[in-house]
C-alpha cells in the first residue's frame, strides 16, 4: 500500500522490491497463516453444525424454555455457518507489525489497545516487533481466544488504514496480502518507520514490493463496484469510523471515494451496533443505475440484506420513476414552492368532478372500474327520518365541508369528522333535538338515528362520492388541468410554469396511472403526507417465534426469500430509519430533501456530495431544504482530497470545465498518471457512425467497460448506435452518468450537454470525470472545435 494518506497526490513510494527469495518466503509465511485460519474456520463449521443438530433435538422437548434456548442456539450456529460458507475472494488481506504499546491492555478482539508505542519500545534506533495482527473481512479467534484475524472494522484494525510515515503510531510495517480463496498470491509492504532497524522473532524485518493501491486502481472495471476494504486511505478511514452521532457531512471532488466510503461506513455502523442498525440503514442514490452498480459492495463486506439501497425515484412504494423531466419542469417540481400548491390541491381535489345537478343521492353511478375523476360529486343529500324527507342542499353541504376542512389535518383523516358534521346537520334539520327532553332518551334516539342513516347503502355511496378517499396519484393527475392548477397555484407559479407543469403531468390518466418522472415521486410522497392514510384493520400475521431473533430468516434456506426480496421488504416496511446515507447529495431538490427527511426523522445521517457536480439549478434553495431536513443536529464535516479514479491527464482536462462551472473551486489531486492524454475527434460523417467507431476503438484499448455519455435528448438514439457491440459498452444520458465509472468514456458533443440546462457545465464536469483510463471527446458543430478537434469549452 504505497499511497496511504497520499493527500497531496504524491505517491509515497515504498521500499525497493525485495529479492524474489524474500518475496517467496514471505508469501509462504502468509500462506501458512491463511492455512491456519481456514483450519480454524473448518473447526468452527463443525461446531456450528453440531450446534444446529443439538438445537434441533432440544426443540423436540417442546417446553418454552427449551424452545427459547433452541432458538438462540440455532441463531448463533446459523450465523456461523452462513458466514463461514461464504466464498470470500480475499478473506485475509492485511497485516500490521507493531511495536510494544504504552500499556499492556487488551481489547475484546484480543489485540493490545494502545495506539502509541511505549517510551522504551525503541532503543538506539532498534526495536522489536511485539505484536502482529492480520486483518480480514471477519474476526477469527483461535481455540485460546487469541486473534487469528481481526475484523477490518474493529478498533485494532484502524492503524492498518490510518498509520502514515508522519504519524506511524505503533505500526512499523504494513502489509497488503493478495489472496484468492485459500491461496495467497503475493504480498506488498509499506515501511512506516524506515529509520528503524526492526527485528521480528530475532530476524531483521523483511520488506517486499510496493504498489498495492496502484494495482487496485489500475484494474479493469466491470459493471459492478468493488469494495476497497484492503486499501482504504487514512482520510477515508476517518469518515468511515466517525461516530454515528448526528450528521456526518463529506465533501470531495469526483473519484475521491465518497460512494465507496459511504458504503463502507454502513458496514462499519452495522459492526458497531448491530441491534440498532440491522435493517435500519437507508442509502439513497441518485439513479437506479448507480444502485445497480453499488449494491454488490455491502454483500462483499459480509453485510447482506441489512441495508436498503434505493434510488431517489424509487423511495415511494409502487412508484418506480423511469422518466426525466426537462430541466425547466424539473425545476418547478423540485422547488419548495410546490408545497404551497400541493396543500391547496389536496383540499381542492375533493371537488374534482362537476356537481351532478338533479341527480338524487343513492342513485349515483359509482362503478368500480370508473376512474375516480369521472365520478360526480353529489350536490344534495336526501334521507328519510322520522317518516319525513330531510335534505341538505348544495350550500349546506359546502358549509359543512369548509368546517370539516378547517385546520391542517390530512384530508383523508378528516372524513369521519365530515361524516359527524353531516349527521349533526341532518339531526338538527329533522328536529331531533326538540323531540326528547330527557337527555338520556335523546342520546339513545340520536344513536339510533345515526345508525339508521349510516347503514343505508345510499348514504354510504353519497359519502364515498362527496368525500372520496383521495390517493396521491389522483391528486397529482389533477394538476394536469391547467385551469385548476392555475387556481391552486395562484401567486406561487407564473402562467408559463403552470403551463409547463400541467403539460408534463398530462402523461397520467385521471387515476394517476402512467409513467412517473423522478421528480413526480417526491410530489407523491408529499401528497401522501398531506392526504394521510386512514387506519384499516390489518389481517393478523402469523407469528413464528423464530422471527423474533433478528437476522434469522436469511439463515433458514427452506423459508428464506431471496436476499434482494428481503432488502426490498425491509425498505417497504420501514418508513423511519436509524441511519440515512445520502449519496450525491448535491443533486437533491428541496422536495426530495423533504421526502428523505421524513424517512430519517429520528436518524443519524451521513451526507456525501460535491457541489461542483450539482445538476440542480438553484443550489441555495436546495441548501436551505437540506438544512431543514437535517434540522438543528450538529454536523461534523470532512473533506476528501484525492482523486482515485481519473488519471492526472483526464483530471486536468476536467479541471478546465470546473473553472468555468464553479470558478475558484479546487479539483481533487489525481493520485496517478497514465501518460495517455484524452483524445479529441470531430464528428464528420454523422454522429452515429462517429460514436460507434470511437466506442469500437476504445473497446480494443481497454479490458473493461466503455461508457458513452450523450446529451439527455439523445439518450434513446444513442442506444441504437451501439447495438451489437456487446455488454462491455453502454450508452447513457449525461444525468445518468452520475456516480458511475468506466475504463474508458466517450463524451459526445460537450457543448450540447452544457447547453441542456442551467447547471449544464456542472453536468459536463461529471461526464468528463467518469473514466479510469481513457477519454475521448467527440466534438459537434456547436463545440466550435479548433484544428486539433478540441472544443471551445475545453481549451486553455
Ligand atoms: N482507497 C481506495 N482504494 C482503492 N480504490 C479506491 C479507493 N478510494 C476510491 N477508490 C476507487 O476510486 C473510484 C472512485 O470512487 P467513488 O466512486 O467512491 O468516488 P466518488 O467520490 O463517489 O466519485 P463521484 O463524485 O464522481 O461519484 C472507485 O473505483 C473506487 O473503488
Describe the structure.
α22 (590-599) links the parallel β16 (579-582) and β17. The strands form 6 sheets. A 6-stranded mixed β-sheet has the order 5-6-4-1-7-8, covered by helices on one side. The chain is α/β, with parallel strands linked by helices and 796 residues long. It contains 28 helices and 25 strands. The model is unreliable at 1-17, 354-374 and 540-561 (pLDDT under 50). α10 (327-334) crosses α19 (495-505). It binds adenosine-5'-triphosphate. Pfam families: UvrD-helicase, UvrD_C_2. ATP binds at residues 252-259. It comes from Streptomyces gamaensis.
Q: Which ranges are low-confidence, i.e. pLDDT below 50, for 5 or more consecutive residues? A: 1-17, 354-374, 540-561
How many DSSP E strands? 25
Beta-strand proportion: 15-25%
Q: What best-fitting shape do the alpha-carbon axes yield?
A: globular
Largest sheet: 6 strands, mixed
Give the SSE map:
Layout: H1 20-61, H2 64-85, E1 92-98, E2 122-123, E3 126-128, E4 131-136, E5 140-141, E6 147-151, H3 158-162, E7 171-180, E8 183-191, E9 197-200, E10 203-204, H4 212-218, H5 234-240, E11 247-252, H6 258-272, H7 274-277, E12 281-285, H8 288-294, H9 297-300, E13 307-311, H10 327-334, H11 337-348, E14 381-385, E15 388-392, H12 394-405, H13 415-429, H14 432-435, H15 439-454, H16 457-466, H17 472-478, H18 482-488, H19 495-505, H20 518-531, H21 563-573, E16 579-582, H22 590-599, E17 604-609, H23 619-630, E18 635-640, E19 642-643, H24 648-661, E20 669-670, E21 679-682, H25 687-701, E22 706-710, H26 715-721, E23 729-733, E24 742-748, H27 750-755, H28 760-768, E25 771-779
Parallel strand pairs: 3-9, 4-6, 11-17, 11-18, 12-13, 12-16, 16-17, 19-20, 21-25, 22-23, 22-24, 24-25
Antiparallel strand pairs: 1-4, 1-7, 2-3, 5-6, 7-8, 9-10, 14-15
Helix pairs in contact: 1-2, 5-6, 10-19, 11-20, 12-13, 17-20, 20-22, 22-23, 24-28
Adenosine-5'-triphosphate (ATP) is lined by residues 213, 216-217, 226, 228, 231-233, 236, 252, 254-260, 610, 613, 644-645, 739, 741, 769.
Amino acid at each position: 500500500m504505497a499511497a496511504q494518506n497520499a493527500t497531496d497526490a504524491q505517491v509515497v513510494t515504498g521500499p525497493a522490491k525485495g529479492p524474489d527469495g524474500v518475496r517467496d518466503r514471505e508469501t509462504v509465511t502468509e500462506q501458512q497463516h491463511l492455512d491456519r485460519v481456514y483450519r480454524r474456520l473448518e473447526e468452527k463449521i463443525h461446531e456450528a453444525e453440531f450446534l444446529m443438530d443439538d438445537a434441533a433435538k432440544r426443540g423436540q422437548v417442546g417446553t418454552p424454555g427449551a424452545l427459547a434456548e433452541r432458538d438462540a442456539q440455532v441463531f448463533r450456529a446459523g450465523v456461523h455457518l452462513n458466514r463461514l460458507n461464504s466464498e470470500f475472494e480475499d478473506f485475509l488481506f492485511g497485516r500490521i507489525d507493531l511495536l510494544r504499546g504504552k500499556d499492556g491492555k487488551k481489547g475484546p478482539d484480543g489485540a493490545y489497545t494502545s495506539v502509541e508505542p511505549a517510551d522504551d519500545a525503541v532503543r538506539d534506533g532498534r526495536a522489536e516487533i511485539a505484536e502482529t495482527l492480520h486483518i480480514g473481512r471477519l474476526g477469527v479467534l483461535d481455540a485460546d481466544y487469541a486473534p487469528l484475524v481481526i475484523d477490518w472494522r474493529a478498533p485494532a484494525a484502524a492503524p492498518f488504514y490510518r498509520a502514515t510515515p508522519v504519524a506511524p503510531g505503533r505500526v512499523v510495517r504494513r502489509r497488503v496480502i493478495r489472496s484468492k480463496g485459500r491461496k495467497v498470491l503475493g504480498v506488498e509492504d509499506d515501511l512506516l518507520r524506515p529509520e528503524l532497524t526492526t527485528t521480528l522473532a530475532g530476524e531483521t524485518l523483511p520488506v517486499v514490493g510496493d504498489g498495492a493501491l496502484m494495482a487496485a486502481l489500475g484494474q479493469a472495471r466491470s459493471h459492478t463496484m468493488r469494495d476497497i476494504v484492503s486499501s482504504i486511505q487514512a482520510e477515508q478511514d476517518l469518515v468511515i469510523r466517525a461516530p454515528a452521532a448526528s450528521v456526518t457531512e463529506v465533501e470531495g471532488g469526483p473519484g475521491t471515494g465518497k460512494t465507496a466510503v459511504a458504503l463502507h461506513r454502513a458496514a462499519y455502523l452495522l459492526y458497531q451496533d448491530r441491534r440498532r442498525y440491522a435493517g435500519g440503514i437507508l442509502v439513497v442514490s441518485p439513479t437506479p443505475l448507480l444502485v445497480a452498480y453499488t449494491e454488490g459492495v455491502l454483500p462483499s463486506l459480509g453485510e447482506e440484506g441489512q441495508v436498503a439501497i434505493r434510488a431517489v425515484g424509487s423511495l415511494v412504494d409502487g412508484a418506480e420513476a423511469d422518466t426525466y423531466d426537462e430541466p425547466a419542469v424539473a425545476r418547478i417540481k423540485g422547488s419548495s414552492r410546490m408545497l404551497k400548491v400541493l396543500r391547496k390541491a389536496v383540499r381542492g381535489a375533493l371537488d374534482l368532478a362537476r356537481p351532478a345537478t338533479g341527480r338524487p343521492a343513492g342513485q349515483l353511478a359509482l362503478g368500480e372500474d370508473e376512474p375516480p375523476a369521472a365520478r360526480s360529486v353529489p350536490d344534495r343529500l336526501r334521507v328519510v327520518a322520522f317518516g319525513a324527507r330531510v335534505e341538505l342542499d348544495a350550500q349546506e353541504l359546502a358549509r359543512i365541508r369548509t368546517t370539516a376542512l378547517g385546520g391542517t389535518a390530512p384530508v383523508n383523516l378528516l372524513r369521519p369528522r365530515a361524516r359527524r358534521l353531516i349527521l349533526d346537520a341532518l339531526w338538527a334539520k329533522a328536529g331531533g333535538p326538540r323531540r326528547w327532553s330527557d337527555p338520556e332518551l335523546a342520546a339513545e334516539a340520536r344513536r339510533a338515528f345515526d345508525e339508521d342513516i349510516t347503514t343505508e347503502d345510499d348514504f354510504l355511496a353519497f359519502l364515498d362520492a362527496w368525500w372520496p378517499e383521495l390517493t396521491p396519484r389522483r391528486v397529482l393527475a389533477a394538476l394536469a388541468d391547467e385551469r385548476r392548477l392555475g387556481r391552486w397555484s395562484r401567486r406561487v407559479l407564473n402562467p408559463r410554469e403552470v403551463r409547463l407543469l400541467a403539460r408534463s403531468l398530462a402523461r397520467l390518466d385521471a387515476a394517476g396511472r402512467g409513467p412517473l418522472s423522478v421528480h413526480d415521486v417526491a410530489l407523491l410522497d408529499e401528497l401522501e403526507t398531506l392526504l394521510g392514510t386512514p387506519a384499516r384493520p390489518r389481517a393478523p400475521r402469523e407469528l413464528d417465534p423464530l422471527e423474533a431473533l433478528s437476522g434469522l430468516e436469511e439463515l433458514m434456506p427452506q423459508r428464506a426469500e431471496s436476499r434482494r426480496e428481503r432488502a426490498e421488504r425491509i425498505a417497504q416496511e420501514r418508513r423511519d430509519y436509524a441511519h440515512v446515507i445520502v449519496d450525491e447529495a448535491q443533486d437533491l431538490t428541496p422536495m426530495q430533501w423533504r421526502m428523505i427527511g421524513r424517512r430519517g426523522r429520528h436518524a443519524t445521517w451521513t451526507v456525501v456530495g460535491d457541489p461542483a457536480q450539482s445538476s440542480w439549478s438553484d443550489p441555495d434553495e436546495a441548501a436551505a431544504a437540506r438544512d431543514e431536513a437535517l434540522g438543528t443536529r450538529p454536523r461534523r464535516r470532512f473533506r476528501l482530497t484525492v482523486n482515485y479514479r481519473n488519471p492526472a491527464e483526464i483530471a486536468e482536462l476536467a479541471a478546465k470545465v470546473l473553472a468555468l462551472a464553479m470558478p475558484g473551486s479546487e479539483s481533487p489531486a489525481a493520485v496517478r498518471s497514465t501518460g495517455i492524454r484524452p483524445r479529441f475527434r470531430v464528428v464528420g460523417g454523422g454522429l452515429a457512425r462517429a460514436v460507434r467507431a470511437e466506442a469500437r476503438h476504445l473497446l480494443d484499448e481497454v479490458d473493461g467497460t466503455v461508457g458513452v455519455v450523450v446529451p439527455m435528448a439523445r439518450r434513446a438514439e444513442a442506444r441504437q448506435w451501439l447495438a451489437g457491440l456487446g455488454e462491455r459498452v453502454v450508452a447513457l444520458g449525461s444525468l445518468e452518468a452520475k456516480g458511475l465509472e468506466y475504463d474508458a468514456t466517450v463524451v459526445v458533443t460537450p457543448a450540447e450537454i452544457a447547453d441542456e440546462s442551467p447547471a449544464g457545465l456542472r453536468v459536463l464536469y461529471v461526464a468528463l470525470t467518469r473514466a479510469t483510463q481513457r477519454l475521448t471527446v467527440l466534438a459537434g458543430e456547436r463545440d466550435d472545435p479548433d484544428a486539433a478537434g478540441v472544443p471551445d469549452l475545453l481549451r486553455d
